[in-house]
Amino acid sequence: MGRLNLNNINPHVRAAEYAVRGELAVKSEELRAQLSKGTTSLPFDQVISANIGNPQQLDQKPITFFRQVLSLLENPQLLEKEDVLINGLGYKTDVVERAKWLLKHCGSVGAYSASSGVYAIKESIAKFLERRDGFPANPANIYLSAGASSGVNTLLHVLAESPKSGVLVPIPQYPLYTATLSVLNATCVPYYLDESKAWGTDLEAIRASYEKAKSEGVDVRCIVIINPGNPTGASLSEADVRAVIDFASKEKLVIMADEVYQTNVFIGQFHSFKGVLRKLQQENPGKYDDVELASLHSISKGMVGECGHRGGYFELVGFDAEVEAQIYKFVSIMLCAPVIGQCLVELMVNPPQPGEPSFELYDKEYNGIANGLRERANALHKAFEQMEGVECGEPQGAMYLFPTITLPQKAIEAAGAEGRKPDEFYCMRLLEATGVCVVPGSGFGQREGTLHFRTTFLAPGTEWVSRIIKFHQEFMDKYR
């Protein structure tokens, strides 16, 4: 037997759970492999990975402007044939200009950048934040990261002083938070979102979780907010955001605002924590000056969907300079975020503007993706509304729906006989019958006695939705 076995590796890694790429995802890949080898024994001809927000795996096309610029960054020799690019390959002049500008500032995308990112890109992000929020941003407080996940990892590492360090995490939540806290051997302090209020934050629930953890000797030091929500798709009102900032200010909690879905909002509008904090500071001089806020954004979501390029950033507001120096050091240990990902972040925050040569196509592609997401979200929601025992709020944002399912007692018993949770059992049967892979609610956390699943609405077409409806009817009939 080798030196390492399951019993002697880091127990905190062993204890971590990450459901969106868990057992169901592994099974779906096995089924996909069988199909690619030409099997005809399965009751479906394609696997739909509705388990993970991975737009380009599900046929979302990359935005032309972004990829054209990247092609020149990867192969700058093409710039020697500008006439061919423009007259022969349909590149616009602003593509060429942007590529030259980025190359001037990062040299080669094959070279490391400064630890926290290319400074000119950080300036571009700061200008974007100022346009978005109406308040200035300082490039020195912006850190580029390999997707928002890497930023979360950095911040939680720095926050977690001991096993008693607690972080308030929304339930249901994206399992990155619980898994990372598990690996760090810190304490996750769950607070439940309110399903009856479209999965909004419930300040009483937050306060109750906070007080309970404190009474158990946990040093609660941070609150995570995912807005728009994952897995719920909820989009917080300005009043909700204000209430959270006020609570964090009173209790001296760092706010971690995961805002990677900020452009994925169907109902109402996105309210950034930074913008609302600056407003509160303006309205109440001195009162909110010591609030510490880290907000994160990414190229993986929105209409960009460039998950594989691993680009993102976080902005720090109100952090102690010495702590920020330690965050910089931590980021430096990983050297820097992928430079091509950093360039994509720049393109996301500074896309073609009206009147510029690439704008018309960019606008058409961007809105095409946005409208497609909205249409599919609504089609899926309509399907859930007609399914027995399924309840689902109107799609509000992000890339997900998180319906409640009520299963017959016999199904719950059959799940128990397999040693599975009822929602896992349902999702496994759904995958085997339809090829559609979703994630059971238990992978995100849910109130005791409730069952859910999370599905993305990224897959093209609606044929797969009718497969779910048919499966659900047959499942319910079988286990009555």
UniProtKB/TrEMBL annotation:
<comment type="subunit">
    <text>Homodimer.</text>
</comment>
<dbReference type="GO" id="GO:0042853">
    <property type="term" value="P:L-alanine catabolic process"/>
</dbReference>
<dbReference type="GO" id="GO:0030170">
    <property type="term" value="F:pyridoxal phosphate binding"/>
</dbReference>
<dbReference type="InterPro" id="IPR015422">
    <property type="entry name" value="PyrdxlP-dep_Trfase_small"/>
</dbReference>
<keyword id="KW-0808">Transferase</keyword>
<keyword id="KW-0032">Aminotransferase</keyword>
<dbReference type="GO" id="GO:0008483">
    <property type="term" value="F:transaminase activity"/>
</dbReference>
<keyword id="KW-0663">Pyridoxal phosphate</keyword>
<dbReference type="Pfam" id="PF00155">
    <property type="entry name" value="Aminotran_1_2"/>
</dbReference>
<dbReference type="InterPro" id="IPR004839">
    <property type="entry name" value="Aminotransferase_I/II_large"/>
</dbReference>
<dbReference type="InterPro" id="IPR045088">
    <property type="entry name" value="ALAT1/2-like"/>
</dbReference>
<dbReference type="InterPro" id="IPR015424">
    <property type="entry name" value="PyrdxlP-dep_Trfase"/>
</dbReference>
<protein>
    <recommendedName>
        <fullName>Glutamate pyruvate transaminase</fullName>
    </recommendedName>
</protein>
<comment type="similarity">
    <text>Belongs to the class-I pyridoxal-phosphate-dependent aminotransferase family. Alanine aminotransferase subfamily.</text>
</comment>
<feature type="domain" description="Aminotransferase class I/classII large">
    <location>
        <begin position="95"/>
        <end position="462"/>
    </location>
</feature>
<dbReference type="InterPro" id="IPR015421">
    <property type="entry name" value="PyrdxlP-dep_Trfase_major"/>
</dbReference>
